[in-house]
Design brief:
The two termini are 45 Å apart. The chain folds into three domains: 1-58, no CATH class; 60-137, no CATH class; 156-241. The chain has one helix spanning 2-18, and strands at 62-63, 88-91, 95-96, 106-107, 110-115, 127-130, 145-152, 158-170, 176-177, 187-194, 201-203, 208-209, 218-219, 221-222, 225-226, 232-241. By secondary structure, the protein is mainly beta. Strands 7-8-16-10-11 form a five-stranded antiparallel β-sheet, with no helix packed on it. The chain has a four-stranded mixed β-sheet with strand order 1-2-5-6, with no helix packed on it. A three-stranded antiparallel β-sheet has the order 9-13-12, with no helix packed on it.
């Protein structure tokens, strides 16, 4: 079966190399002569060229991962299409990957691979990860932001951490403040309260927080003591799970 597959791939690449309308272009003829080796493709035969600028670059297909959708129709238990694990693309866009196409992930232009080990026939828990370097930075704004953090739940599923920025006004007489729960939130991960333009971080916790859609569902302070904040407007970043 493997021998037949290698022969088919070699013939396919050869045909594409001579077809004027091919999607794969070569800097020379393509030959199917790698059977019985560890290679599936070898582009090293340009070392002897006098012009060292020729035959050096690999032109990679570009895609927009903020609109990209997997075609899961051919997925089966075969190695090649079982879960797209290890698939590499060059992403040309900035934003978030689509819901339902693996874990929603913030992306910027660059090379990404789809990490989805141990999930044959399923892309739900897969995630696009950057190749090399740190994960792309994300800006937490007043709209829901997908962070670069996953929280392990201990049951084989990693939960995406979301974040959102907002403000609230303290009365100076009550511990209750208005930090409404974002839509779909099930678990509070943390809240940082600060004042923009100052070096003051007031707290990274609350005395209590109720996951509800009603306003005024937070009580300021530490887990052991509620605190009345001085009258004024405060900034916060809420991090949460769905």
């Amino acid at each position: 079966m493997k021998k037949t597959f290698v022969n088919i791939v070699g013939l396919f690449l050869l045909i594409l190399g001579v077809n004027s309308n091919a999607q794969i272009l070569g800097n020379g003829p393509l030959a199917s002569s790698l059977e019985g080796t560890n290679y599936f493709f070898d582009g090293s035969n340009f070392e002897s060229l006098a012009n060292q600028s020729y035959g050096r670059g690999l032109g990679f297909p570009r895609t927009n991962l903020t609109t990209f959708q997997f075609d899961t129709a051919p997925m089966d238990n075969d190695v090649t299409l079982s879960n797209f694990d290890g698939m590499v693309v060059y992403n040309s866009a900035t934003g978030n990957t689509l819901a339902g196409q693996g874990v929603t992930t913030a992306v910027i232009p660059g090379f990404y691979y789809f990490s989805n080990p141990g999930n044959p026939g399923n892309i739900t828990n897969g995630r696009w990860l950057p190749i090399g370097g740190a994960s792309p930075k994300v800006t937490i704004g007043t709209a829901e932001t997908t962070t670069n953090t996953l929280i392990n739940t201990g049951v084989g599923v990693d939960k995406q951490l979301f974040a959102l920025k907002g403000t609230f006004t303290a009365s100076g007489t009550s511990t209750a403040v208005n930090i409404p729960a974002p839509a779909g939130m099930t678990t509070l991960y943390g809240i940082t309260i600060y004042k923009a333009g100052t070096n003051t971080v007031y707290d990274r916790s609350l005395y209590s927080y109720t996951v509800a859609t009603s306003a005024g569902n937070a009580i300021t302070g530490s887990p052991s003591m509620s605190v009345v904040y001085p009258s004024g407007t405060y900034d916060y970043v809420i991090e949460y799970l769905k």
